[in-house]
Structure formats: structure tokens, C-alpha cells
Design brief:
Layout lengths: L1 E5 L10 H13 L4 E8 L5 H9 L3 E6 L8 H10 L6 H4 L4 H14 L3 E4 L16 E5 L3 H11 L3 H21 L5 E4 L2 H9 L4 E3 L6 H4 L7 E8 L5 H19 L6 E5 L5 H9 L3 E5 L5 H6 E6 L9 H8 L4 E3 L16 E2 L3 H12 L2 H18 L2 H18 L1
Parallel strand pairs: 1-2, 1-4, 2-3, 4-5, 5-6, 6-7, 8-9, 8-11, 9-10, 11-12, 12-13
Helix pairs in contact: 1-16, 6-7, 10-14, 13-15
């Protein structure tokens, strides 16, 4: 089967949950299908990424990236002008004529059997794909993320903008999810929202490469806790703010020799200032392999207040038998059992108390780690999840 994937960028390097999911599923499906991957690219900067994806047997169809560079004056002008629009900025920013024209050319020349839209914000491109079976992957319910940002931010302007974007993205979701043959959600909870829009939806959860993360443990620093994330995301930035301002003071007053490691790319300067203010707080930036940081740490923490979908970093920690303490939103979408394979805590005082207690109980750490490993091995291995994706593709082909 010839499958055309539409996405914002190449799924490499594996620097965020979306890329990790896409890479792991497609790398396992490429031997079974002819996969074309159409996305924006910057040449020659993306040449190494291109070679990695093509080495998997996937043919890349690059589109010149003419979008405004984030953080530039042109970008912020577009954000301001979008205030007058009825469409969400997160979609308008990506829907460019250069991509639309190239898509029509590819459909005409390649005649794909199926179009797989790997991101909800790309859904408007599907307007020109009549007669071809198509699906949308909802890595999150995007409108819910913006709605939670509006609720949690203390910035009055951001509160208004986030609420506005939530309404617009919800309209995009309600318009497009029912128009495609199939939607894929990453959790049962997300599937209920998508189904309420009148769409056909199947759950393929996020996963983990159990073999890759099952490595001999390094010497563990029993006072070291980590949070692995992409810190260019406002939901992860909010998690750091929440932790540093409301949880950290309670923890360090009892255990001053604690160390907290924020592992992941692009922390903004306002977050990195916390490392100067608090010597126990460390930001690594982009790392070649997160395993080293997981292995050396005693506990994984996920202090998220904003999000949707499910967290791959929890699964990676569990695959390395690390105990996890998280907010309910941080662990949302996973089939976890509070007190058995994870600890859930939402209020900052409870989160701090649970973390302090867990640090002093190595036996409980081992028990949580062992149960977490059992969970990911039985339910979240990428090999099983890739088979689910394959079954959906094949079923769509037979139906059409």
C-alpha cells in the first residue's frame, strides 16, 4: 500500500513526544508499505534528518519552509493579526500555498492509496484530497490544552488569547474529525471527546521501546529527581514554574541536598534563571540520550497542570524501572494505578510530601519501579502498537 504522510516536520531528532511516537511507529511499518513523508524542510540544515528517515525506507517529499521564524518580528505580527481572524493561529501559521500546490502535484503523480495526516492543525490540507481515504492522528485534543492554559495562567492577556484559541481550535476539530474516514486518539479519554464530535475514532496509545530502555542501571544518586520534557512547550514551562514556585520550597526546606534535573531541549531564559537562583536546579538543554539521566536519578516527576494525550516520558521512566510521581493531568491517558505503579498528587503541598516520603523509602521506589515496568512491557511496547496502526491502514484500504 502507498501511504502519504502529511506532517509539520521530519520525526527526527527524537526531541519531543510527537516525534518519538511518529518515528517509532513508522520505522516498524516502513518494511510493509511504501511510505511517502511530506513535510516542511529547510535545506541544507535538515540534510542529516533527511538521511536518517530515508535510511528507514521512507521516501521524503520536502516542501520549502516559508513560515515566519518563531520569535521574529514577522512571527509576532502574524500572531497579532490572527486576533482578527476566526481561524486558530496554530493552523493558519502552517497552511501555506506552497504546501497545497505540492500536495496536489504529489497526489496526481503518486496516486496514494491513503493519506495519513499526522497532526490536527494540518487538517485543512485535506480539503483537496477528495476520493482518497484519509485519517487524522490526534496526538492531543489541542483545544483542551489551550483551555487549560487559559485556566492556569496568571497573565491576563495570555488568558484571553488562550481562551480564544481554544474556541477556534475546537471548531477546527469539530469540522475535520467527522470528515475523515478514521481518527486515531492516544488515549481513551481523548477518544471520548473526538467521538462526541461525531467522528470514527480508534485508540492507539503512546508507547516505549522496552528493549532500548532496559539497560543496566548506573550508580543512582538517591537525592536526584528528574523531569524530562521539551521546554519549548508552554505546558512544560508551566510545569517548571509550578514546581519551582510551589513545590520546591517545601522540599528543599526538609531536604536541602536534593537535586532536580530538568532534561530536555530549549528551556527559555526565564526558566534557566531558576538554576542561578537555586543551586539544586539544573537544566541540561538538548541531550544525545536521555537514558543516562534517567538511570542516574532516583525518581521521575511530572508536575504538569496543562496537557492532553499521554506522556511518553513516564513510559520511558517505567521501562527503566524508575518510580514516578505525577499530577493526574501529567499521567492522563495512561492505564496507571495510583499507589501501585505510580503516585499521583495534584496539590503542591501533597506533591512535596509524597516526594519527600518516597525519597526516604527505597523499598517503595523499587516496588513502584517493578510494577511500572510490568505495565509498559505488557501494554505499551511499540511493536504491538505498530500492529494496531497497520490493521487500521489495511482495514481502510479494504473499505475503499
Amino acid at each position: 500500500m502507498k501511504i502519504l504522510i502529511l506532517d509539520e516536520w521530519l520525526p527526527f531528532p527524537l526531541e519531543n513526544g510527537k516525534k518519538i511516537r511518529t518515528f517509532n511507529l513508522l520505522s516498524r511499518l516502513a518494511p510493509k508499505h511504501e511510505i511517502l513523508y511530506m513535510c516542511y524542510m529547510k535545506k541544507p540544515a535538515d540534510s542529516i534528518k533527511l538521511s536518517v528517515i530515508e535510511s528507514m525506507g521512507i521516501r521524503v517529499i520536502p516542501v520549502e519552509d516559508r513560515r515566519a521564524e518563531k520569535g521574529t518580528l514577522r512571527f509576532y505580527l502574524q500572531v497579532m493579526l490572527n486576533m482578527l481572524s476566526k481561524k486558530p493561529f496554530s493552523s493558519v501559521y502552517h497552511i501555506k500555498k506552497v504546501f497545497s500546490r505540492r500536495l496536489l502535484e504529489v497526489i496526481g503523480s503518486e496516486k496514494p492509496d491513503l493519506i495519513h495526516c499526522e497532526w490536527t492543525n494540518f487538517a485543512p490540507f485535506l480539503e483537496q484530497t477528495n476520493g482518497i481515504p484519509k485519517l487524522i492522528v490526534a496526538h492531543n485534543v489541542e483545544s483542551e490544552i489551550w483551555r487549560r492554559l487559559s485556566k492556569n495562567t496568571s497573565n491576563p492577556l495570555l488568558k484571553i488569547v488562550a481562551w480564544q484559541q481554544a474556541q477556534r481550535i475546537e471548531q477546527l476539530e469539530k469540522e475535520w474529525y467527522p470528515r475523515v474516514n478514521q481518527c486515531i486518539a492516544v488515549s481513551e479519554r481523548d477518544s471520548l471527546v473526538i467521538r462526541s464530535y461525531g467522528a470514527s475514532v480508534t485508540v492507539i496509545e503512546n508507547g516505549v521501546d522496552v528493549d532500548y530502555y532496559s539497560i543496566p542501571a548506573e550508580t543512582v544518586d538517591r537525592n536526584r529527581v528528574f523531569f524530562a520534557a521539551s521546554f519549548d512547550s508552554f505546558s512544560n514551562q508551566d510545569a517548571v514554574e509550578f514546581f519551582v514556585k510551589e513545590i520546591l520550597p517545601r522540599v528543599r526546606s526538609v531536604k536541602p541536598d536534593i537535586s532536580f534535573w530538568m532534561v530536555g531541549k530549549d528551556p527559555p531564559d526565564r526558566l534557566k534563571r531558576y538554576a542561578k537562583k537555586y543551586p539544586e536546579v539544573h537544566f541540561t538543554g538538548t541531550v544525545p540520550d536521555v537514558k543516562k539521566y534517567i538511570s542516574k536519578s532516583a525518581i521521575c516527576m511530572v508536575p504538569l497542570r496543562i496537557g492532553s494525550g499521554s506522556r511518553l516520558k513516564i513510559l520511558e521512566a517505567m521501562a527503566m524501572k524508575k518510580p514516578v510521581i505525577s499530577t493526574a493531568i501529567g499521567a492522563e491517558g495512561l492505564r496507571i494505578d495510583d499507589g501501585k505503579n505510580i503516585i499521583l498528587a495534584n496539590r503542591p503541598d501533597v506533591f512535596a510530601a509524597e516526594l519527600l516520603q518516597l525519597l526516604d523509602r527505597p523499598d517503595q521506589q523499587r516496588a513502584l519501579g517493578d510494577k511500572g515496568f510490568e505495565l509498559v512491557k505488557s501494554s505499551y511496547d511499540w511493536r504491538m502498537l505498530a500492529e494496531k496502526q497497520n490493521a487500521i491502514w489495511e482495514a481502510m484500504e479494504k473499505e475503499n
